[in-house]
Design a protein that fits this description.
Distance between the termini: 20 Å
Low-confidence stretches: none
CATH superfamily of the largest domain: Zn peptidases
CATH topology of the largest domain: Aminopeptidase
Structural class: alpha/beta
Shape: globular
Strand order of the largest sheet: 1-2-6-3-7-16
Number of strands: 17
Strand content: 15-25%
Largest sheet: 6 strands, mixed
């Protein structure tokens, strides 16, 4: 049950503000520069909008750039040398009371995936049938909206008894192989908080962890030339690897996203025989894979899963004379291990779950995220962390991305209660 002050905060969440914030965010393109769009916007305009908003509510603003050192010190396999200028993470520091109490971090990412393939205007922010439409509406501008409205409610209502510090991290580099470099940079720069909430994911769940993700590029050779004179199509050679993918899936736990073949690039004209085919795949991993790698190699990764994939490719290639002599080249792009803090942060997970139930009178699902999220970096740093979100199931990254207004309102109400309870004087 909510007490009187908490009920007041919950009631102060304004649907009109939620709609306005989300629409304004969607209408400001924040497409990750590495999205694959022909002319990606970058995130600078969206970050400036958020920074201005937070300043109006008395925030101390800190700009924290991403850097490769964050990946290096964690022994993470991920892309290096990405552009950082104009993409610095915005961290808004809010002090309540004397500021000597608990420290809590809220984290949400600003960057989005590509918009060129969106069905319609990706930046319309159209409100229709209770949904806001546009690229990033669910992933993750719904959560940025939640954080902004939570800030407004907490600063305008000044609840009694709060005495602590709230850091609101608006980060880049979650999407498009960014590997969570924004959140990593914030963790490295800020004082270690007592707990964190990463706002990302579908509505109606409290996530105590997430799956991991492997991204791999497979280059399959062919032999260019005239089709009538012994050339070898790289496309045909690539298709001969299909049994490798089937075998890999059969040897891994069943579930959605365990292998996603997302890229197949080859050729330039029907009259030509392509010399190279490029395959791009995402492989979902589990916290147990990181545990197994830790036990075998002393590092948390999905190295054993990588070895299995390489073995399956080699086995399939050995069945073809051409591929045996010209083996496919495997390039690992990133390895972000899954994490689960259920074993050591049970009290905090229960706390967030209770806040959700008390506020919304509904039981959330408590299970790890079926996908990778920035929350893993907080958990790896020993910070009790959960993920909650307002995105609409199945909408993120889709050509018709949308978010339900009522889900954003309810997620904001639960977030406000979580923050106010956590930052109470102990």
């Amino acid at each position: 049950m909510l007490n009187t002050a908490e009920q007041m905060l919950s009631n102060a969440v304004c649907e009109k503000n939620v709609i306005r914030f989300c629409q304004e965010l969607v209408r400001i393109p924040t497409v990750n520069p590495y999205s694959g769009d022909k002319a990606p916007s970058g995130e600078s305009a969206g970050l400036a909008y958020i920074e201005d908003f937070c300043r109006r509510y008395g925030a101390e603003i800190i700009r924290i750039p991403c850097n490769d050192a964050s990946c290096d010190r964690r022994d993470l396999l991920c892309p290096r040398g990405r552009r950082n200028e104009g993409r610095e993470n915005v961290v808004a520091k809010f002090v309540f009371g004397s500021g000597t109490g608990p420290v809590l971090v809220l984290d949400a990412h600003v960057d989005t995936v590509a918009a060129d393939s969106f069905a319609g205007d990706p930046f319309s922010g159209e409100l229709k049938d209770g949904f806001i439409h546009g690229r990033g509406s669910s992933d993750d501008k719904s959560s940025v909206t939640v954080m902004m409205e939570a800030i407004r409610v907490l600063r305008e209502n000044k609840p009694d008894g709060m005495d602590g510090t709230l850091y609101c991290c608006f980060v880049t580099e979650e999407e498009c192989d960014g590997s969570g470099r924004g959140s990593m940079a914030c963790i490295d720069f800020l004082p270690k908080p007592d707990a964190a909430i990463v706002l990302d994911g579908s509505y109606g769940a409290v996530r105590p962890g997430s799956s991991g993700i492997l991204t791999v590029r497979v280059e399959v050779p062919g032999k260019s030339g005239h089709a009538a004179y012994g050339a070898k199509s790289a496309i045909e050679q690539a298709l001969k690897l299909a049994p490798a993918f089937a075998e890999f899936k059969s040897l891994r736990p069943d579930g959605p996203g365990m292998l996603n073949w997302g890229v197949f690039q080859a050729g330039n004209h029907p009259a030509n025989v392509p010399e190279l085919a490029v395959l791009g795949l995402n492989l979902r991993t589990l916290p147990a894979d990181a545990d197994a790698s830790q036990a075998r190699y002393g590092i948390r990764s999905a190295r054993l899963v990588r070895e299995l994939f390489e073995s399956c490719i080699a086995k399939a290639a050995a069945q073809d004379d051409f591929l045996k002599e010209n083996p496919p080249r495997i390039i690992w792009v990133k390895d972000l291990p899954g994490e689960d803090c259920s074993g050591w942060a049970q009290e905090y997970i229960r706390f967030v779950r209770d806040c959700w139930v008390d506020t919304l009178s509904e039981e959330p699902e408590v299970a790890i995220l079926c996908g990778w999220g920035d929350m893993t970096h907080f958990m790896r740093a020993g910070i009790p962390t959960v993920g909650i979100g307002a995105s609409y199931p199945g909408a993120p990254h889709s050509a018709r991305e949308k978010v339900k207004v009522s889900d954003m309102v309810n997620c904001t109400r639960a977030t406000v209660v979580c923050v106010s309870r956590f930052l109470q004087k102990k």
